[in-house]
Design a protein that fits this description.
CATH class of the largest domain: Alpha Beta
CATH topology of the largest domain: TIM Barrel
Strand content: 25-35%
Structural class: alpha+beta
CATH superfamily of the largest domain: Glycosidases
CATH architecture of the largest domain: Alpha-Beta Barrel
Number of domains: 4
Number of helices: 16
Largest sheet: 12 strands, antiparallel
Helix content: 10-25%
Length: 863
């Protein structure tokens, strides 16, 4: 293969055939040296476009093996050195490939190449025992690298054969191979970074609470109790409203409770409700609650534990009382038991963990099991509310099955169900009169049609059951992950569209969900706001759009970008709900102050301050919805011509998603329309030329400079400078280092990357407001938080208390009337007056996180 790949998944390569944004085109040919080992990287222009070996046993576009004959006469080689990497890398200690050395005397030696020992993933590389990261670069999607590894061949082979591991889904990429005499030291010592209180970090005073009535107490924004206006409905504008107050729109913002965090004793439940209301949350998602609800001693997964059910009932009722609506998934991770009597699983001892996701559309017994769980939960009468969940308007929405789009999961990790899908596919072809040998082997557009048809039938039956038999008043969604235009037909059958996205989701080089965690440590802004841009096109105009899982994952230092990107662009796009994943993954993390770790923000003061910014930008609508709106559309013929496989096809063109940085974007079916929305055929070349002049100019500027300003001028993103600036009447928010100015706020001398926000607390324009917040957010860590490398992309320990805040300064100049400036503690209580000066209509002070013991991130400005 070559290093460049001009077209995603065309079966021709180069590199891993993942398209021009995710190849190795930055790799230079010619001499490359690492640890004294020289490689001669093949110039593809002189070698018929080829530069490297790319091998796989499962992906047929790549060969499985390649042999090379060598002239070994006179050589004294003892080691084979490889410059290589893998993609779709298996778990640690699993084989990626094999090197077979054949010698002139007829002897043969084999050298297994194992993941996590000899090689690692080319994305976000980290050193392994027999592989040092010898080369690094960045493509349009991520930080990438190659490994230098050595194998003791002992003598120069006459022939080398490189083989991909049998039955592995991985791809093995070999850029160079060299023979030599010396054993390399591949364990080069790196300074292992600890974070400790020093010249760069200071301990934070944080108690996990918000003082009632303080400037950080946002509970006054809630409209209690939840459900007071009747069930939530979808209005004619395609947004959430109420049956009994049809002109009253509502947006939702809240966290996920995960696992045992849904099951709290009354004291801890009351504490959580207090924290949630003071953050201004008006909704909570009960997630992965289904296992905790089941009686562990029951023979099936349908019998509820009475104590757990009472805890869930109490928490739901308290949330409702305080104005917090709820939503949930009717299946997330409930582990099946023999007593469930799922026909297709009889006799199987360890089926795939989430196999019910794929079984429900295929199996009557699986569907019946799902229905029975739903019946028992939704018809249960909550003693604290007096209502069943099915009739309670405080349960405003539910998702049928978590993260279950068949176009992505139909293969699954367990191949046992694949024949069932293939049998159904043949039946589908016969029904449609399309049963030909060619169509039977197709996994392109026609197969996608089949998967969508199967999913639609399942959804329609689930909706009928809920609405007609259980009399459910809540709204229903499904397919709550992935942005693909191939899923639009299915999503049209839902009350609203839901989706998930993370920035820098960790991956696990040794053991899933156990340290060490690997990260890219990249900026979303530098990637043209990939999060949340990826989410934008999947919305269907005329239906509400929610994001029930988002996060900028700790410890990526660029997570300070979360508030302006999520809050700002969700407002610009006019979405309907945002849910941070997660408040906590368990109750064990909710009754004490601890260090921030994983996805959880329960003990993360930086993330909780970001929630206040998001609340005002999105919930208080400080960011206006963009007027221009564009809908991706395509015909059934275009869908039918997709080459597949389903999981690799149907991605929205990147250029269309970038249009979402200017105006509202979404999707409409070929026959659909919506007032004020212009349909765009973005699959045809030259579609941009038919856009309005202002939209064309914005995209053109983005392409040339990396800068784009939204319609109406409120958000400007500069991907090259890694800055975003929000300028609106009630707020100004900037993510930057150095200097940046808006209309009211001028910041200078910022000595670290940070987000700074000036926010009106009374809803008035900044110049008229009598109460303003100024928030300064740099990086946050913990004492002795430990990384395995200097790049800090391999985390070994989350550390211990106290939490540490990056020392950071910025000079602030505000074009405002004279105001008093006061520092606040992280619980919102006063922390002393801040020296300021006023002259020539400008208020000036210095924001300095280290200006007081315990740190300062928030300031109150009052007339």
């Amino acid at each position: 293969m070559g290093f460049r790949d001009e077209k995603l998944n065309d079966g021709k390569g180069g590199w891993t055939d993942q398209g021009p944004t995710n190849d190795l085109r930055m790799m230079k040919s010619g001499r490359f040296s690492a640890l004294g080992v020289d490689f001669d990287i093949v110039n593809p222009e002189r070698n018929d476009g080829r530069s490297c070996l790319v091998l796989s046993s499962r992906q047929q576009k790549f060969p499985m093996e390649k042999s090379i004959a060598l002239d070994s006469s006179g050589e004294k080689s003892r080691y084979l050195y490889l410059l290589h990497a893998s993609a779709w890398t298996p778990n640690a200690s699993m084989p990626v490939g094999m090197v077979v050395a054949e010698y002139a005397d007829g002897s043969v030696k084999e050298f297994p190449v194992l993941a996590g020992r000899d090689v690692g993933n080319w994305w976000q590389p980290y050193g392994v025992a027999n592989g040092v990261v010898a080369w690094t670069g960045e493509n349009a999607e991520t930080f990438v690298g190659l490994y230098l590894s050595q194998f003791p061949v002992e003598a120069a082979p006459a022939k080398l054969t490189f083989k991909a591991a049998a039955d592995s889904g991985s791809v093995w990429m070999i850029v160079g191979a060299t023979l030599g005499e010396y054993r390399l030291n591949l364990r080069r010592p790196e300074a292992l970074p600890y974070i400790v209180a020093d010249k760069d970090w200071l301990p934070v005073e944080y108690n996990g609470n918000t003082v009632a009535g303080s400037p950080l107490d946002f509970s006054g924004y809630l409209d209690a109790p939840a459900g007071k206006y009747g069930p939530v409905v979808v209005d004619q504008t395609g947004h959430f409203s109420f049956r009994d107050a049809p002109g009253k729109r509502i947006r939702f913002f809240g966290p996920n409770l995960v696992g045992t965090a849904n099951y709290l004793d009354k004291e801890l439940a009351d504490d959580f409700v207090t924290k949630a209301t003071r953050l201004g949350y008006n909704t909570v998602r009960f997630h992965h609650f289904d296992n905790g609800l089941i009686d562990p001693n029951a023979p099936d997964s349908l019998t509820f534990d009475s104590r757990a059910l009472d805890q869930l009932d109490y928490l739901f009722a308290e949330l409702k009382k305080h104005g917090i609506y709820s939503c949930l998934d009717l299946y997330a991770s409930r582990e099946l038991k023999p007593g469930d009597h799922i026909k297709e699983l009889e006799g199987r001892t360890s089926p795939e963990k989430f196999i019910l996701k794929r079984l429900i559309p295929l199996s009557k017994s699986a569907m019946d099991n799902w229905k029975e769980f739903a019946r028992r939960l939704l018809t249960h009468r909550n003693p604290y509310t007096g209502l069943t969940y099915a009739e309670d308007p405080a349960l405003y929405a539910l998702n049928l099955v978590n993260e279950n789009p068949l176009v992505i999961i139909w293969r699954g990790w367990d191949p046992a169900l694949i024949p069932l899908f293939e049998e159904r596919y043949v039946e589908y072809l016969k029904e449609k009169g399309l049963d030909t040998p060619e169509n039977r082997t197709s996994r392109g557009g026609l197969f996608i049609e089949f998967l969508n048809d199967l999913q639609i039938r399942s959804i329609e039956e689930q909706k009928r059951f809920l609405k007609e038999e259980l009399k459910l008043v809540a709204l229903v969604t499904d397919l709550n992950m992935i942005s693909k235009f191939t899923m639009n037909e299915v999503r049209e059958h839902l009350d609203f569209v839901d989706n998930h996205q993370y920035w820098d989701h960790p991956w696990f080089p040794v053991r899933e969900w156990h340290l060490p965690y690997a990260f890219s440590n990249k900026s979303s802004i530098a990637n043209r706001a990939e999060h949340p841009r990826y989410l934008m096109p999947a919305r269907i105009f005329g239906k509400p759009y929610t994001v029930t899982e988002f996060n900028f994952c700790n410890p990526n230092p660029y997570r300070v970008e979360a508030a302006p990107l999520i809050g700002g662009y969700a407002g610009l796009q006019d979405w309907d709900a945002l849910y941070r994943f997660a408040w906590s993954h368990g109750r064990y993390n909710m009754d004490k102050v601890d260090v921030p770790y994983g996805f959880d923000i329960v003990n993360d003061p930086q993330a909780q301050l970001a929630e206040r910014i998001i609340n005002l930008l999105f919930m208080r609508e400080y960011i206006r919805a963009a007027k221009p709106a564009f809908a991706f559309t395509c015909t059934s013929g275009q869908l039918r011509r997709l080459a597949g496989p389903p999981e690799d096809d149907g991605d929205y063109p990147a250029e269309f998603t970038e249009l979402g940085l200017y105006g509202r974007i979404g999707t409409l079916g070929a026959a659909a329309s919506f007032p004020g929305v212009r349909k765009v055929d973005a699959l045809n070349a030259g579609w941009e030329k038919r856009l309005p002049a202002a939209a064309r100019a914005a995209l053109d500027k983005l392409g040339k400079t990396g800068v784009i300003t939204s319609a109406g001028g409120q958000i400007t993103l500069d991907s090259k400078a890694k800055t975003v600036k929000i300028v609106a009447p009630q707020c100004e928010v900037m993510t930057f280092s150095g200097d940046m100015s808006g209309k009211v706020m001028k910041l200078s001398g910022a000595d670290c990357y940070q987000t700074a926000a000036l926010l009106s607390l009374d809803g008035k324009k900044l110049a008229e407001s009598e109460k303003l917040l100024f928030i300064q957010m740099p990086n946050l860590g913990a004492t002795k938080q430990k990384f395995a490398n200097e790049r800090r992309n391999l985390l070994e320990s989350w550390g211990q208390l106290p939490i540490l805040l990056e020392k950071c300064r910025a000079d602030v100049e505000l074009a405002l009337p004279e105001m008093k400036v006061e520092a606040l503690k992280l619980d919102g209580s006063p922390n002393g007056a801040v020296p300021s000066a006023y002259g020539n209509g400008k208020l000036r002070f210095t924001a300095d996180t280290a200006s007081r013991p315990g740190g300062v991130m928030v300031y109150l400005l009052t007339r």
